[in-house]
Design brief:
It contains twelve helices and two strands. The chain is mainly α.
């Protein structure tokens, strides 16, 4: 048996979504769930919906926020990369990167996850997008090859800003990391740690999961 998400369930879960947004989202979730066998158990579906909803501000934000309005905050988040001292040549001068998300992404994501240096633009081109923040040229490359057998996502990374690939890329991450098994074992903290990198947001995500559990019934 397959457990299919309905328009009514998503509308009840996120009532602020317009009717025009609900349909494509539901289609994307169900296609993803079928592709990665998430639809084979209710808990898998509920975990996936809860985690992806948390990551995307209830399916309203498909790209990471790289806008920092104060240099002090940049230094707080990346103390090894930014400085408030214009004479410190060992770090980037934080005021130059406030309200400048493209420059920031090109710097902080340079030379990692398959990206080139800051001048290549890879940091911005392959910034976090989609249901689970697909990030880095290598991950975009692997996702595109695994799901489509070609490099269409590398050629057009903004496809991951739209429901089909936003959710499918999250499902790809889910599958690669064996999260169906963790859902089956009711290991929500482990699932959160794999997706988030740590368990710091478990309580907030559990609150979302409780909402999902109440709505997504079959």
């Amino acid at each position: 048996m397959s457990y299919v998400v309905t328009n009514n369930q998503i509308s009840a879960f996120v009532p602020r979504l317009s009717a025009g947004a609900v349909g494509p989202l539901v289609a994307a979730i169900n296609a993803t769930n079928a592709r990665f066998q998430i639809d084979q158990a209710p808990r898998r579906v509920r975990y996936f919906v809860a985690q992806s909803a948390f990551e995307t501000a209830s399916f309203t934000s498909w790209s990471e926020d790289l806008v920092y309005t104060t240099p002090e905050r940049l230094v707080e988040v990346w103390p090894s990369r930014f400085t408030l001292n214009p004479n410190d040549s060992s770090k980037a001068f934080a005021p130059a990167y406030t309200n400048n998300p493209q420059a920031l992404a090109n710097l902080v994501y340079a030379s990692r996850d398959g990206n080139g240096g800051p001048d290549t633009g890879d940091g911005w081109n392959f910034r976090g997008r989609g249901g689970f923040d697909l990030t880095g040229r290598s991950n975009y490359t692997e996702y595109s090859q695994d799901v489509y057998g070609d490099q269409r996502i590398v050629a057009n990374p903004d496809l991951v800003l739209h429901p089909t690939d936003a959710m499918m890329s999250a499902g790809w991450f889910w599958g690669v990391n064996g999260l169906n098994a963790h859902a089956d074992a009711d290991e929500f903290t482990t699932t959160t740690t794999i997706i988030n990198g740590n368990a710091s947001t478990v309580d907030q995500r559990l609150a979302v999961l409780n909402q999902v559990n109440a709505i997504f019934q079959w």
